[in-house]
């Protein structure tokens, strides 16, 4: 059984897309996914693959960490 650590990834895809004055469809076409993928990613309901995250960062010419932020749940468990 897969353990749920409660970690998450937040993103600024919406912010970068709006600053670039692009629609969700335009961004989707540029990075090779559907408009729905961009929509759910912007809403925080989808964590992209590493490849897609890198593709988006490359498109906006920024570091992947500028757009995507790993948020670790601190549950007090020692590793």
Précis, in short:
Residues 13-67 form the HTH cro/C1-type domain. The protein is mainly α and 79 residues long.
- Individual helix count: 5
In one word, what is the shape?
A: globular
Unreliable segments of 5+ consecutive residues: none
Rounded radius of gyration (Å): 14 Å
Please describe the biggest sheet, giving its number of strands, its sense, and whether it closes into a barrel: 2 strands, antiparallel
What is the CATH class? Mainly Alpha
Structural class given helices, strands, pairing? Answer: mainly alpha
Secondary-structure element series? EHHHHHE
Number of strands: 2
Share of β-strand residues = 5-15%
Number of domains: 1
CATH topology term: 434 Repressor (Amino-terminal Domain)
Quaternary form: single chain
End-to-end C-alpha gap: 19 Å
Mean of residue pLDDT values: 91
According to CATH, the homologous superfamily is lambda repressor-like DNA-binding domains
Helix percentage range? 40-55%
Task: Explain how this protein is built.
The chain is mainly alpha-helical and 79 residues long. The chain has one domain (8-71): lambda repressor-like DNA-binding domains (434 Repressor (Amino-terminal Domain)). 48% of the residues lie in helices and 10% in strands. The chain has helices at 13-19, 24-31, 35-42, 50-60, 64-67; strands spanning 8-11, 68-71. Strands 1-2 form a two-stranded antiparallel ribbon. Helix 2 (24-31) packs across helix 3. The longest helix is centred in the C-terminal third of the chain and has 11 residues, at 50-60. The two termini are 19 Å apart.
């Amino acid at each position: 059984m897969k353990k749920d650590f409660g970690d998450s990834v937040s993103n600024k895809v919406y912010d970068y897309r709006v600053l670039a004055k692009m629609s969700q469809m335009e961004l989707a076409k540029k990075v090779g996914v559907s408009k729905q993928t961009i929509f759910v990613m912007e809403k925080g309901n989808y964590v992209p693959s590493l490849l897609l995250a890198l593709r988006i960062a490359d498109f906006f010419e920024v570091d992947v960490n500028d757009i995507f932020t790993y948020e670790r749940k601190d549950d007090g468990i020692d590793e």
